Amino acid sequence: MRDLLAELTTVLNQGQDCVYCSVVETRGSTPQKAGAAMLVFPDGGQRGTLGGGCVEAEVKQRALGLLAARGLPEVATFCLDDNYGWDDGLICGGRMTMLVEPLSNRQIAGPYYQRFHELVEQGQGCTEAVIIKDEFGASVGNRYLFDAAGQLAAQTGEGLVPPEVFRHLAPLAKRPGTATHHGIAYLPILPRITLYIVGGGHVGQAVGRLAAEAGFEICVLDDRERYASRERFPAARQLLLGDIGANLKKIVQQDINSSTYCIIVTRGHAHDEEALYHLAVTNAGYLGMIGSRRKIKLIYEDLIAKGIPAAALDRVHAPLGFDIGSQTVPEIAISIVAELIACRNLGTTDLSVRVRVQAENLQP
Description:
Number of helices: 12
Low-confidence stretches: 85-90, 351-364
Radius of gyration: 23 Å
Shape: elongated
Strand content: 15-25%
Number of strands: 15
Distance between the termini: 27 Å
Oligomer: single chain
Order of helices and strands: HEEEHEHEHEEEHEEEHEEHEHEHHHH
């Protein structure tokens, strides 16, 4: 989304025509979920994806038709158990609703998407409320953007925000999912998580690559120059080279909060214990440590003897990652990043909650 919004603001600033196509509602199993977006240009070019296949091709044709006719935004719904599913194998049984929106009024669209891009870049989170049915006088396609505090940041609809828009606006702190109420689609973007990887070895490197692709901001700590390197972590926002304990002292004082996740994957028992000593009593949103249960038990005993409360250690994910029978470094990294995503998106890593949420998402 960050890259797409960056390109969109550039296009609008240059006075180019385009259509913003976005998934505003889904039911059941679909290749993309609400919030996915695609730009379509007059020459047929595009950026982003709505899931590919016949659905995306149909939306693209509609977008080009609206551009040519200077038409108004329109909503299109596709069922993936009919022709759209059979033609390209997407027999998911789900339903996707798209808003196809020509951005012709740049005086309104330009400032709106510029502000949207700014909020996404800042990483504090925001929510779009998009009108997809004219149920209370607001025009289809009107967008209202709210910052992390729930304050109106920008809008494309003229006049006051309809009271119905505020009625179902959920605080980001509750990690709301996308939802539709009375013809209003709510599309939250949760605060961006900073992931501190303590240890730049093989597991740390593999986690860093996957986590960056999943939208985490990566910071790496190691006391070895060849491990805390740009070559190993090309997507890292920050590389901290030097004594691990000294660097963690600075981080704990300045940067650790509920939007910070930390994983401890150093090369040895002593470094793991030192890292956990500094991180255990912080309010990090997630804290995990790699290792065997015996090693973890010994480290916990040492830390309790040093004054770390047992309650602080109870919240540590150790061993970290979901139990998927991991054997190789890539498998271990996948298990770790999956747990990080669950914590970020659901606010929990509890299996029963994950199963319930997945079941609800599959309901028609």
